[in-house]
Design brief:
With about 425 residues, the protein is mainly α. The chain has helices at about 1-25, 35-70, 75-100, 100-110, 125-135, 145-160, 180-190, 205-210, 235-250, 255-265, 290-310, 320-340, 345-365, 370-395, 395-410. The protein folds into two domains: about 1-210, no CATH class; about 290-410, no CATH class.
């Protein structure tokens, strides 16, 4: 099933390209390069992590189904219908608790922290969220739902969620009364006071009706989260609320308040502690055209690499899987830092060190495993090292000219 989802990624990327083109034609501020690469990096981390936590999810579901189920449901169409409603119901409550309990908000805030709203937000999901959900889905096999049925429905629901993240689909008439639509989900992502903690449904709108959290789109949506936050690093995007909780718990003396902090809403702070939120710094480093070209190169290669990794994962050993995952994620993260002007002095030297270490590890891997794909990875790393050193020596002006020629062909206007 994971392979099937991987095959959907090129379709998703094509739709992203179409939406980006529309935004350029309309001159809308819907896309920003740094934000887009950030979203894809976070999505890559989540998809690669899902290779492991989906195995854990299936093991948990199978164990609960085998040892603790109290009901038997015939394996027919009725089980699929009931499972769909059950998954959608639990999705609502997990989603709602993810906004009202710090321990779950820490894993979900990543999805909301972008101030841009477009289809790439569908990729922007922290792997912590996938892990947190396991305890919710583990309830369903108790009532006789097959683990296979649940996994398939979860994947289909995830595909549906992707299409909700767009500003270019307006209200959909009578469908707005039955299903969660892009308009309703835009409301959910708004930080306007009227939109806070509304529209938690995944597919069906009935749960928001029943539990009083339905809100229609009545004013222009302001996207992002309240408070001090700058979206300039995948580490910050995924971990900033965990860092905040750790600092606050460390400063909290009463054990009762330490525990209470985890289950209270995100805006609650113990009386004995002042807010521990720092003031983030927006990236302001001057980025050269060659560095941007390097980041575009890394992003393009790594997006293709992530797709291939997900499709052909069964052909790889666990060590190859871990090594390739590390190379892809670190390379995408580097691109994100460049586009967000968040690189530090000595960046080129540190990037060269990362690439040399990667070359060494892949070379070491070649002594244990055979495969042309290892040579391809090695070639990519040597080319990356060459381009990175070229940034420092300013000897690769042809790289800049190459990307300019591509821009002319597809009629882009590099800024």
């Amino acid at each position: 099933m994971l392979n099937a989802i991987a095959l959907f990624i090129p379709i998703f990327l094509l739709l992203v390209g179409i939406e980006w083109y529309i935004s350029q034609k309309k001159e809308d501020q819907v896309y920003a390069t740094g934000n887009t690469v950030m979203n894809m990096t976070i999505g890559a981390i989540d998809q690669i992590s899902s290779l492991f936590y989906f195995v854990a999810l299936f093991v948990v579901l199978e164990y609960v189904y085998t040892h603790f189920r109290i009901l038997e449901i015939d394996n027919n169409w009725m089980q699929w219908v009931l499972a769909f409603f059950a998954v959608d119901f639990l999705s609502y409550w997990y989603h709602r608790l993810s906004h009202t309990m710090n321990i779950f908000w820490a894993g979900h805030v990543t999805h909301h922290s972008s101030e841009y709203f477009n289809l790439t937000n569908g990729f922007r999901t922290s792997f912590f969220q996938g892990i947190n959900r396991i305890i919710f889905w583990a309830v369903l096999p108790v009532f006789g739902f097959s683990p296979i049925v649940l996994i398939v429905i979860l994947k289909i629901s995830g595909i549906h969620d992707f299409f909700l993240h767009t500003q270019y689909i307006s209200k959909l008439g009578f469908l707005e009364k039955i299903f969660v639509t892009p308009s309703l989900h835009r409301v959910h992502h708004g930080k306007n006071d009227i939109y806070i903690d509304k529209n938690f449904g995944s597919v069906l709108l009935i749960w928001d009706y029943l539990f009083g959290t339905l809100q229609r789109e009545t004013e222009e949506v302001q996207y992002g989260i309240k408070g001090h936050y700058v979206d300039n690093s995948p580490v910050v995007a995924i971990g900033h609320h965990y860092f905040y909780l750790w600092k606050t718990i460390s400063k909290t003396k009463q054990w009762y308040n330490k525990f209470k902090l985890l289950v209270m809403p995100p805006d609650w702070v113990p009386d004995e502690v002042q807010s521990t939120e720092g003031t983030p710094v927006q990236g302001s480093v001057s980025i050269t055209t060659l560095q941007r070209s390097y980041a575009y190169f890394q992003t393009t290669i790594c997006v293709i690499g992530v797709i291939l990794l997900l499709v052909f994962k069964n052909m790889l050993s666990i060590w190859e899987l871990l090594l390739f995952s590390g190379i892809l994620v670190s390379s995408l993260s580097i691109s994100t830092l460049i586009f967000n002007k968040n690189i530090r002095p000595g960046f080129i030297n540190w990037e060269s060190f990362r690439l040399i270490c990667s070359i060494f590890l892949v070379s070491l891997m070649m002594t244990q495993y055979s495969g042309n794909y290892l040579l391809v990875v090695l070639l990519y790393l040597f080319l990356s090292l060459f381009l990175n050193i070229g940034n420092k020596e300013n000897s690769l002006k042809w790289t800049n000219n190459y990307f300019k020629s591509i821009a002319r062909v597809i009629r882009l206007r590099p800024k």
